[in-house]
Amino acid sequence: MPRRSFVSSLLALGLTFAPALASAGEGAECAQGKLSLQSVVDKHLQAMGGKARLKAAKTYQFTVVATEGSTVTTTNVRRARPNLMRHDTDKNGTSFTKMFDGNQGWTVEGSAAPQRLDKEKNTALAEGAHFDDALLDPKAQGVSLAMDGADDVNGTPTFKLVLTRGTTTQVRFIDQKSFLEVRRTYAGIHEGKAYNKAITFSDFRSVDGIMVSHRVKWEGDGQQGEKVIQGARYDAPIEASVFKLSPPRS
Question: Where is the signal peptide (predicted)?
């Protein structure tokens, strides 16, 4: 898969959740909201369903329809603790699977043999496979976080959280009223080239006690698209075999 297509596919599905280190910058105040970094993080997690509910979830499944120009794809996503993930996609009648088995990322196109992802793509997929949102277990993720005051997103006042890990910077914009995330931007280096992406979240609904954005728009590298979740469930059983693929034959 081409470099930009691989990065775009992760971001279009909203599956790259760069982790946050909540302890860094604690006590800083937002000029408008007068809330510390930790207070914003806590209120955001509470708005999402609460720490206890988020940590109790074991599996998550959803079906998403993604539109990019005239191309429409349907993907069934299955995720399980701690870092298992599988996407089964249909694009114009062609099937494609992308999976992380806990250690290694794989791709399968049509009836071809499974292929291992190279080191860099495997690392990117591994980061996206973390079941928990980064804010639930920040120290284990090794990412720094700072609050960069407030900003306006389409007329909505937000708190601006800046997350940094290596060469990647992620900015989360948290609605000052609902404490839900309304926008996320990414900037980093992939295979020696810079990239910039942005995702906008809307249509939040409660799914088994956890808030889920059912409509996401993304843009970057001169492209844009939208995904709409058509069905989602937490804690439905998933067979372990779902996350296992046979290695390609030698």
Answer: 1-24
**CATH of residue 27:** 2.50.20.10
The structure tokens listed for 76 are: 């069934």
pLDDT digits (tens, 9 = 90+) for 111-139: 889 999 999 899 889 988 999 988 887 77
List the structure tokens of 29: 């105040």
Long-range contacts of residues 186-191, Cβ cutoff 8 Å, at least 24 apart: 186/11, 186/16, 186/18, 186/220, 190/3, 190/7, 190/120, 190/124, 191/3, 191/120
Beta strands 84-91 and 94-100, pairing class: antiparallel
Q: Is residue 248 assigned to a domain?
A: no
- Residue ranges making up the domain that contains 202: 3-243
Other Cβ atoms closer than 10 A to 155: 5
Copy the structure tokens of residue 86.
Answer: 């599988």
pLDDT in tens, 47-77: 999 999 999 999 999 999 999 888 899 999 9
How far is it, in rounded angstroms, from Cα 228 to Cα 6? 19
Does residue 249 belong to any structural domain of this protein? no
Range 50-54, long-range pairs (CB < 8 A, 24+ positions): 51/136, 53/209, 53/210, 54/132, 54/133, 54/136, 54/210
Query: Is 142 part of any domain?
Result: yes
Residue 217 lies in a domain: yes
How many domains would you assign to the chain?
Answer: 1
